[in-house]
Amino acid sequence: MDSTIHFPKPLRTGHAIGITAPSSGVVVESHLQRLELIEGQLRAAGYGVIEGKCLRADHQHVSGTPQQRAADFTALWNDPQVGAIIPPWGGELLIGMLPHLDFTSLAATPKWVMGYSDISTLLLAITATTGIATAHGPGLMDLVRDQVASVWETAFEMLGSEAGARFSQRSFERYQVDYIPYEAQMDAKFNLTEPVEWKRLGDQTPCRFSGRLIGGCLDTVVHLAGTPYGHVPAFLERHRQDGVIVFLENCGLAPVEVVRSLWQLRLAGWFEGVRGLVLGRSAGPDVSGVGELGYREAVESVVGDLSVPVLIDADIGHRPPQMVLVNGALARVEWSEGAASVVQRFI
Predict the structure, then answer these.
(1) Of 135, 138, 58, 136, whose CA–CA distance to 93 is shortest?
(2) Backbone angles phi, psi at 143, to 5 degrees
(3) Under 8 Å CB-to-CB from 173, ≥6 apart: which residues?
(4) Residue 291 buriedness (CB in 10 A; 0-12 / 13-18 / 19+)
(5) Region of residue 161 (phi > 0: left; psi between -120 and 50: alpha; otherwise: beta)
(6) Residue 29 CB: number of other CB atoms within 10 A?
(7) Cβ neighbours of residue 147 under 8 Å, at least 6 residues apart?
(8) pLDDT in tens, 240-285
(9) What are the beta bridge partners of residue 199?
(10) What gap in Å lies between CA 87 and CA 22, rounded to an integer?
(11) Is this structure's pTM higher than 0.90?
C-alpha cells in the first residue's frame, strides 16, 4: 500500500478561490450579502474568486442534485486558475455526491479543500481514498477579514504552506456559544465569551502524542464507516509506522447518539492502534445532574478504556474558533493543565 500523503501546491495571491456548496447552498439575502462581502475582501487581498454553479441555490437542504454538485466541484478542482476550494459552510446531505466523484481523476491533480461540518464528509473521503491532504478548518463564511483569534491569517498561512512545511497552533483563550447574526452585523466576528479548557479523560498528567491526522464531524463521517469512502482502518494500516490521531467533533448529536456513533466507529476499527483521540467542544444538546448522561460521560463510556490519551473540548468544530487540522499531516499534540499545542508537518 502507498503510504505517501500528497500535499497540494500552496495557495498564492493571484490564484483564485473556488466557491461551491457541496451540501447546503446560500439563498437568504443576508447570507448572500455576507458571501459577497467576503468575496470582495478576498479580491482586495489579491485572490481571484470563481463561483461554481451550485452555490446560490438551495432546495431540500442541497444546492443541486448529487450529479450537479459533483460536477461543479470537479470543474473547480480541474480549473488551473483555482488554488483552493472553500465552500461557504456545511449542511446535511453531502454524502449523496460521493459516488459521482471520480477519485482516480482527482488524485492526478491535488488541490486544497477547506471546510468543516458536512464538508468533512468530503474531506475525509478524499484523503482516505486518494491520500491527498485536506484541511479541516473554517468555512468561507467564517473568513471575514480581521476575524478574531487570527482565524483569517492562520487559514491562509496554512493554505499557502509548501510541502515540507511546519505549521504550529496553540489552544485559544475563549470560544463562542452565541453567534452574532449577519442580519444584525454583516461583518460580524466570532463572539468569544467562554474560557477554553482542553480536558483529558482519566490520567491528568501532561501528555504528548503524534501521528497522521484523520477525522471530521462525527454527525456525518460516522455514515462513511464501512463504505469505500471511509476506509479509516486501511488508513491506519498504511500509516502504522507514523501512527494515527483521530479527531472528531459533534455538531448536534445528543449524548446517547454520541455513544451509538462512537461505538459504530470503534466496532468498525477506526480507533484500532491509534496514538490518541482529539474530540472538539460539543455543540449538541447536553445535560447535567446526578445519573444523567452528558457529553463527557458519553465519550468516556465508549473510549475511556483506551490505553492512549483522549482529549475533549478541543478547538475544533461548531463552537469556534477552531484550529486548522490537515487530514494526512504528521502532527504532534501536547497537552498540559487545560492548554494544548498542535504542530503539523506536511511530509
Answers:
(1) 58
(2) -95, 45
(3) 192, 195, 196
(4) exposed
(5) beta
(6) 10
(7) 189, 190
(8) 999 999 999 999 999 999 999 999 999 999 999 999 999 999 999 9
(9) 312
(10) 7
(11) yes
